Amino acid sequence: MSFTIRPLDPVEDAGLLHGWVTHPKATFWMMQDAGPGDVERAYGEIAADEYHHAFLGLADGEPAFLMERYDPAHRELVGLYEPEPGDVGMHFLVAPTDTPVHGFTRGVITAVLRHLFEDPAVRRVVVEPDVRNTAVHALNEAVGFVPEREIRKPEKRALLSFCTRERFAAATGVRA
C-alpha cells in the first residue's frame, strides 16, 4: 500500500472529515457533536494558524487518514512540559471503515512519522493521547514512542509520550 500526504483543504475536505470526526470510533477526537460547518470552521482556524497544520493522508490515492502537526511550544502543550528544539506535536485519525485491513493503522502511523522525520529540523515527535486510549498507546509504543508521564489538559488526562528519530528507526526499520 502506498501512502501520500497532502495539505488539507478546510472547505473542500470538510464534508469528508465530518464523517470521520463524528464517527463513534473517533470519540477521542472530541468532535462527536460537530456539524459540517463546525468542522470546516475548526480546520479553517488550523489553516490560518502558523503553529498548527492539518493534512489529508491517502492510501493508494484514496482519502484514508487525517494528520495534524503542531508546534508544542505554541499550541496544545504550552506550560505542560519543557519543549526542546526540534520537537513537533502530532495527532492522527484513521478514517472509519466497515472493512478493516490488518496492520493498516500501523502503516498509517509509520507513514505519518516518516513524513514528520523527513523534515531535518524535527528531532522528536510529541503526542498526548487520552490516557483511556489504550489502543493508541500500544500502537505508539510499537513505532518507538516512550511514555513519560500523565498530564492534565483542559479537555482530558493525557499520556505525554515522545519518539526520537532513532527510536522510530529502531522500532520500524524505517529511515526518514
Automatic annotation (TrEMBL):
<dbReference type="Pfam" id="PF13523">
    <property type="entry name" value="Acetyltransf_8"/>
</dbReference>
<dbReference type="InterPro" id="IPR019432">
    <property type="entry name" value="Acyltransferase_MbtK/IucB-like"/>
</dbReference>
<feature type="domain" description="Acyltransferase MbtK/IucB-like conserved">
    <location>
        <begin position="6"/>
        <end position="53"/>
    </location>
</feature>
<keyword id="KW-0808">Transferase</keyword>
<keyword id="KW-0012">Acyltransferase</keyword>
<comment type="function">
    <text>Acyltransferase required for the direct transfer of medium- to long-chain fatty acyl moieties from a carrier protein (MbtL) on to the epsilon-amino group of lysine residue in the mycobactin core.</text>
</comment>
<dbReference type="GO" id="GO:0016746">
    <property type="term" value="F:acyltransferase activity"/>
</dbReference>
<comment type="pathway">
    <text>Siderophore biosynthesis; mycobactin biosynthesis.</text>
</comment>
<dbReference type="InterPro" id="IPR016181">
    <property type="entry name" value="Acyl_CoA_acyltransferase"/>
</dbReference>
<protein>
    <recommendedName>
        <fullName>Lysine N-acyltransferase MbtK</fullName>
    </recommendedName>
</protein>
